[in-house]
Specification:
With 138 residues, the protein is α+β, with helices and mostly antiparallel strands. It has two helices and four strands; from the N terminus they run E-E-H-H-E-E. It has one domain: 2-Layer Sandwich (GTP Cyclohydrolase I, domain 2). 19% of the residues lie in helices and 28% in strands.
């Protein structure tokens, strides 16, 4: 017979959960992006990362998936915005993603990053980062 371990009330207040971050790391999307003649009309690979700090640092009550953040929503929105139109700049695409996700219910802080991994053979990528806070984390 299995017994569920209950740890409620055992975590010291000094180390209780104070924030929770959802991470989509390096989602690969294809986007018609860039302002050079050789880039226009030729989709390029982008790696988009999204970090969402959510308002509640607590686990969903009863391990209920209905109370969890929907990763699929984030991925759908990033993909939809990346393919919705042509962009000259990564900054423009990132601001569109940022604004869409920042408007979602429960978001307390947000960072989005875009990287073009195929620009320079001697660099992992070139990119842009936008955050709702200064520093490493909110």
């Amino acid at each position: 017979m299995e017994h569920e371990v209950t740890l409620a009330g055992m975590v010291p207040a000094a180390i209780k959960a104070r924030q929770q971050r959802i991470l989509i790391d390096s989602l690969e999307v294809m986007a018609d992006i860039g302002f050079h003649d050789f880039e226009i009309g030729i989709p390029q690979r982008l790696l988009i990362s999204v970090e969402l700090w959510i308002e509640s640092p607590h686990a969903p009550h009863g391990d209920d998936p209905e109370q969890a953040w929907d990763y699929d929503f984030v991925v759908r929105e990033v993909r939809a915005l990346a393919t919705a139109r042509r962009y000259n700049l990564q900054e423009t695409l990132l601001h569109a993603i940022f604004e869409r996700l920042a408007a979602a219910q429960g978001v307390a802080a947000l960072r989005v990053t875009s990287t073009k991994p195929d620009v320079y053979p001697d660099a992992r990528g070139v990119g842009v980062e936008i955050a709702s806070f200064r520093g490493v984390a909110p």
